[in-house]
């Protein structure tokens, strides 16, 4: 029997794409598409709820879905480390339930972060510049926050990160000691540069999203991973590294 999927935020850019991906998957079926005027009750009967709403409502959507025994794929930005800890504790009380939080469905972006973590073992001067379309409502992006958190974890036992003059506002938002600079421009979809500085050299790991089709493979991968998982998982890299069924 196909896995039943409800998409919450289905009229948004990412939501409409998720709905298209689900409809094209032979092992998934789209049973509900909710917008901002929909009652959350409309997701009942789904096996998986995909939250692609807004940071201000995402927590409510996730809590409702889990309270109904529905696994949740979260593609909404704004899930801080503290909020993720709360979610993890809630899931520990409900064996078999699962939430998969994916800051970015792009396989290329996911691999960028994985590579950046390896490079961070050898460089202590690190900054992130992320650029998105002008209508993106949050900054820094969830992807940049997640990348900074992952790099900071690597650097924690290696002396940390060098980030001089962090008290100056022009130095960017400090995410666990790593400066993150956000640009919001017309003519851009998404780009992230992780810049490493060393003695006499710099190294930049860059990823650019040219079209939203880049997210389709990651959406499908995340849905299939979530169907088989339990508890809290954060980051598409876990689905990328999961053994094929």
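-> sequence recovered:
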């Amino acid at each position: 029997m196909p896995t039943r999927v409800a998409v919450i935020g289905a009229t948004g850019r990412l939501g409409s794409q998720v709905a298209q991906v689900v409809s094209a998957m032979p092992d998934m079926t789209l049973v509900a598409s909710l917008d901002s005027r929909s009652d959350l009750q409309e997701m009942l009967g789904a096996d998986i709820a995909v939250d692609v709403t807004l940071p201000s409502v995402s927590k409510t959507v996730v809590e409702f879905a889990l309270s109904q025994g529905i696994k949740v794929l979260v593609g909404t930005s704004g899930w801080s480390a503290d909020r993720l800890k709360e979610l993890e504790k809630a899931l520990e009380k409900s064996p078999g339930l699962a939430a998969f939080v994916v800051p970015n469905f792009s396989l290329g972006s996911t691999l960028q972060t994985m590579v950046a973590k390896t490079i961070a073992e050898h460089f202590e001067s690190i900054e992130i510049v992320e650029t998105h379309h002008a209508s993106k409502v949050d900054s820094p992006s969830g992807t940049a926050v997640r990348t900074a958190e992952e790099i900071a974890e690597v650097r924690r036992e290696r002396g940390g990160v060098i980030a001089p003059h962090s008290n100056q506002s022009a130095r960017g938002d400090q995410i666990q000691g790593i400066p993150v600079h956000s640009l919001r421009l017309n003519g851009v979809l998404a780009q992230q540069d992780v810049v490493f500085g060393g003695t006499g050299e710099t190294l930049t790991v860059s990823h650019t999203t040219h079209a939203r089709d880049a997210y389709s493979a990651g959406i499908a991968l995340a849905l299939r991973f979530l169907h088989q998982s339990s508890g809290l998982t954060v980051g598409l890299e876990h689905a990328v590294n999961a053994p094929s069924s």
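The longest strand covers residues 125-133.
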